[in-house]
What does this fold into?
Amino acid sequence: MSQTWNRECDLESFVAFSLEEHEIPSCIWSEAALSIYGLPMSEESDLNSTAWIIPDILLGVTCLVLHNKKFSLCVDRNCDLLSGHGFHPPPDMHIHVKPDSEHGGITHDLTFYRKSRVFWAFPDPPLGAPAPDDPTYMLVTDARLPEHPDERGRQPTGNYPVKILTPARYIEGTILLALRDLVGSANEFHWSSVVQHLWELVADEENDLVTLDDLSGPFGEHMKHFGQYYFFKDLSIHENGRKYIFEVHSKMKEFKKLPPAEVMNIANRHVSYGLPPGKWEGDSLYDGSDCFYFQ
It folds into this structure.
């Protein structure tokens, strides 16, 4: 019998607990995390899902753990989540969780990604709650997160702790993804949409969650130019942003500071994730070094 569930925050806590019970660290990202930051989601966004980051070597164990918790992994090669439509990167594995029949509702998807595919530049999430001053991870119940009437915002306390990236690191990681897939990847449109959402967050003068000044190294400058590229109607400003972004992409690719772009083979439902870990010079923890600057 497959698992059923009602409240998404309870489901997320149960998944986090089930994994950490077997020493598998995790954190959530994508639309669920963005909504917790208080970002308004577009009509195309899928808020009936939770995307998870898992250390690469533990993805197989994650599959076994969740199977033993009565979650049924989807093995349908024609599943919509693997369609390769270009809006959202297909997961490494996923589960369709049926709603609790007593409460009604709709199916909630759990999608799982190897960390090296999405946030390769950061350390693995810790087991348990991160330290209060952890620069990379925080809890979804953290007091710094906004209480939001329309989006998910800060989550209720009392459940097992679920982690997300701090907003500054999330922005930095998304910039790297946008640069990685800027050319030759169907994911380009997805990352451009996410960067635009995040730009609205840092450009909001009433927002005190994250600003451009919170971004480390060159990322504040990168984000500023993404803003010029995506939002400015003045052609000279738009062109300045476009030129900067493509030159950064070119230099980082030239010096192997980015992994190869992800390419989706729609016919075979297969994603080419580029080279395996350790085969490109950027496969290391981000240290804010000058190698990420374009000069």
User: Anything to note?
Assistant: The two ends are 58 Å apart (CA to CA).
